[in-house]
Amino acid sequence: MKVFEWNIGMAATIPSNQGYNLLPWIIEEILKEEPDGIVLTEFVVSKGIDYYIRELEKNNYHWFISSDTKSNGILIALKSDSFIFKDTFDYDKSTINIGSDVLTGKDLPDFYEVIVEWNGKPLSVIGVRIKIDITGNDKTFKKNQFMALDDYLSKKDHNVICIGDYNAYWGTLWSSKKNTTLPNTASNNFQIYTPNNSFSFVLENNKQVPLDHLITNINNEKGIIVKYDWNFINSIRYKCGITAETPKKTKGLPDHAILKVEI
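and the corresponding structure tokens:
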């Protein structure tokens, strides 16, 4: 199973105000390898969404969107022949959840969950983005979001793929007692997967950091492969010599690498 996640950099813009739109090449890029699952974070319903829907359906995906005006949403698309959707489309079963439906706490991350069947068992595909507090109280704001997510994930009794932009990087702290962000999840058969020696975002001070991760409780004896892909950047899509290493990339365009996961 291949699942690709991408923060496409729309940052909760109001499209009718700033004119941002969903560019065709973004959906074309992530569909190139026909992954079984696609998760787009910082997704805002905008002009051009009709093309995204046509391309997803043409390639046999079921799509699900969590998005409100003036807030970042998440798009999840799942290949129709890779999963079973019988319960997913049953209105009497809670199989499509947004953050406020299932998470508890003062501050909640961008969160969207679709529950399907995979290999004869339930599977939660969760897109997540830990939000940044632009007012300056970022540490507490982030911690509250992680607490809500940690509580929810640690109680899951079936397979989970939780993938997205966590706006944090743990390194070797994940499996140690120093992990104060997702301690219950880390001790409850979940593992974090992050590409080694690579980065998914560039801070304003030019520091290259891995912010996009996979967190899952799926045990795979053959291993889980994760990598970041920056090959979508070229001189036609990004002007003024912008490269993967450039901080503060063009607003409205993806500023994160694509996280590609193979399970």
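(Above: one complete record from the training split.) The chain has a mean pLDDT of 92.
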